[in-house]
Amino acid sequence: MEGDPTLQLRVFDLNCWAIRYLSKRRQERVRLIGDMLRQEGFDLVLLQEVWSERDYSDLKAKLGGCYPFSHYFRSGVIGSGLCVFSRFPILDTLLYQYSLNGYPYMLQHGDWFCGKSVGLVVIKISGIVFNVYVTHLHAEYCREKDAYLPHRLVQAWELAQFIRHTSKAADVVLLGGDLNMHPEDVGIRLLRGWTGLRDAFAEATRFEGCEDGCTLIPNNCFTVKTELLPFPLGIRIDYILYKAVSSFTVKCKELKTTTGTAPGMDIPFSDHEAVMATLHIQRQGQAADSNLGTAEPMLADVVTEARTEVGVGLRAAQRQRYSTGRMAVLALLLLLLQAAAALGTLAGLAAGQPFPKLSFSLLAFFAIGILLLATGLHLFHTIEVKMLQGTEEQLRMALRALQEHP
Fold this sequence. Notes:
It is a single chain. The protein has helices spanning 26-40, 53-63, 111-114, 149-166, 186-195, 200-203, 299-347, 357-404; strands at residues 7-15, 44-48, 69-73, 82-86, 90-97, 117-125, 128-136, 172-178, 198-199, 206-208, 238-244, 248-257, 275-283. The protein is of the alpha+beta class and 406 residues long. The longest helix has 49 residues, at 299-347.
């Protein structure tokens, strides 16, 4: 109702870079993060890359009095790494795992094993229903030759669709996470345009932190400097996005980022800088406009661009499927030739010819290994093709709807 006092919500988002046993000074950084969260007393804490449930349990024990409510999202082989800490009761949760998550054979990257996902928690504060989403999209690794762009676009589209279809009963929508996309990238424009989410950095009345809001900066001792050579100031890939769905307004009064080392320490909390937003939520007389395209007037062009990139990925996946299928067929033919040769050799044993058991066994094991590997990869790329085809078709329908009803 009009005249209601403004609700202030302080939100904290951080990619913790907490890969168990591998990341540098992990336990020390987990302790520093816990100490800082206790001291600052945020209302909501959204974390990514908390791969170890032990780390989550340690944080939960440390923060128990300040954040009595929390949830850890489990998915993939090593876990989604997503968790939420809240000062307010969590009413419901939901996890959606993206259909494409990179490649299982790219062991040095490992995104596939995480089961990249988006987690949703529903909370109610002073009668206002909040849908709070936390996510971590596939990393870029190489901007010049971004082999994962189609997968990340599929994830951005599924994230937008997930938010759109699950937030209809909410009053306010919040999204925080490491989106692994620059603000001008097509995936961000697609996500914001399709959902109407607003960028806290762009909307903030007051900002304090790294220049341009960058969250991956060169002077962070954990950052891989070669990845930032084209970007002397760093890049902004961690976001807090928001939107009022019903008769409320949301304004970002203040946005901050950390700027390097933790206070009094020689190390930062993570290889990413944290993002901290102070949001003011107030009821208004009329319902807020929640139509598509409120944040992106040229949404049809964005959808077309995204569809083109997904099409490029689809053709690459089809080539991979063909190559692995051909490899499997060749391995099968090799096995058949071996079987025929073995039968011929066995038939000639009566003539006193020796049977080369070792050679045949090694060749058979080699052919079987190639056959299993190629078959597995063929099945994987077949699934990849189907997922890309499905997303391309959804984008085509979305584009048609936008063109028919601008």
